[in-house]
Amino acid sequence: METRPTGLREQKKQATREALRTAALRLALERGPDNVRVDDIAEAAGVSPRTYNNYFSSREQAIVAAITGEREARVAAAVAERHTDVGLAEAVIEAVVDQYTDPGEPGRDALLLITARPALRDEFVDAAASIEHPLGDAIAQRLGDTDRHTARVLAASVAAAVRLALGQWLQTTVASSTSSGLVLPSGSLPDLLRTMLAPLAPALDAAERRAGRTAS
Amino acid sequence: METRPTGLREQKKQATREALRTAALRLALERGPDNVRVDDIAEAAGVSPRTYNNYFSSREQAIVAAITGEREARVAAAVAERHTDVGLAEAVIEAVVDQYTDPGEPGRDALLLITARPALRDEFVDAAASIEHPLGDAIAQRLGDTDRHTARVLAASVAAAVRLALGQWLQTTVASSTSSGLVLPSGSLPDLLRTMLAPLAPALDAAERRAGRTAS
DNA sequence: GAGAAAACTTGCGTGCACGCAAGTTTGCGC
DNA sequence: GCGCAAACTTGCGTGCACGCAAGTTTTCTC
User: Fold this and answer.
1) Do the Cβ atoms of B116 and B184 come closer than 8 Å?
2) Is residue B16 a contact partner of residue B45, using CB atoms and an 8 Å limit?
3) What is the separation, in whole angstroms, between the first and last Cα of chain B?
4) Chain D, protein-covered positions (CB within 7 A)
5) Is residue B76 within 8 Å of B134, Cβ to Cβ?
6) Cα(B167)–Cα(B107) distance, rounded to whole angstroms?
7) Whole-angstrom Cα distance, residue A137 to residue A28?
8) Which nt is closest to the CA of B47, judged by C1'?
9) Quick check: A8 pLDDT over 90?
């Protein structure tokens, strides 16, 4: 598997990354996202503005990262740890749904912030793309490396479907909160994810069958 | 279908867009892409720099648009005009391959430019995403609007696969031209596209079967 | 443990994207 | 034709992303 170079250096990097995204979210919540300069975030995290940009390539990225966290790694891990006796399609779909179902309170009002600002919304949706590579590795693992291209395509497709689901979710949400004050997205994201992922199930299972046939 | 508001206004817009991307490519070829400022492109096209940014949101976009042209529309049209008696998977795959096979001379050295600069390479690869919406409409058409979500997911997946294929193509190309002077990408893009799209065929055909069953 | 190499941070400079608020052109109904 | 509304252009201002070339910290090797 992928082992990170565990040293003092790596620890500091993770700490800095964490400090930056935490600071970004906190400031955005306190002052509203338009009143947060990159310099403010950098200062709050105790690094130079230039360093901020070594970690995040847009202001939105830092804020969104605070709530998406390490989701990409978790999705991949969740796929990997499902037993091999459920089909690939089911394994992937359930793993994704699990990781995207509301883990509880932490980012409740952060989501409000995100739905409110188009730029943040877009960044949040695009962040789904980050599951592509880890997920690709996990799928390749299950397919037995017979064809790395297939795993990559499937992972990319899943990521695309997730992106669409998130987009749709925030879309209808925003639409439903027109007049009243902001409304929390309560339409069922899991249902939406399943709907969007369902069309890919035949491709996932077909790939697995092919791999099995080749291997045996 | 989608009819464009055909008026003087629309003509001018297309003319401006065309002028901008043509100018962008010409200047990039003449001087090298790093010696072209946005202001230069705008001036060459006879508009203000600010207007340039109303059409393209990055310098790379304009250059790449000069060679990708209206590919997104052509792909959708190509799918639409295939006879319904070939499977959806075949229709889509062949339509895509057709539109991405070298149309001849026009952008031969433009591709050299693109492979050379990472920023241009990325933009070129990302431009594949623009087929997503038109292709989604075309697929929805064939599926008979039973489930618009399915069409969108499939289109997004195809776009993702194309993106991977292009990336791979330019990747190996660049790698193979390390020491010698720049080498034209000659690895078979059509083959690569077919390889990347093949895993999605089961999903495309399954969707079509479902649609057929629902309709009958 | 000392010294070199690699990784990371930072200040600086440059070009750029984009919101905003005029000003201008096009489209449309009467 | 006339005039109004909508679409588009443009100048300006602001914040930002990122290359580059020091300077600093961590790691590696002997």
Assistant:
1) no
2) yes
3) 24
4) 7-13, 15-20, 26-28
5) yes
6) 18
7) 34
8) D9
9) no
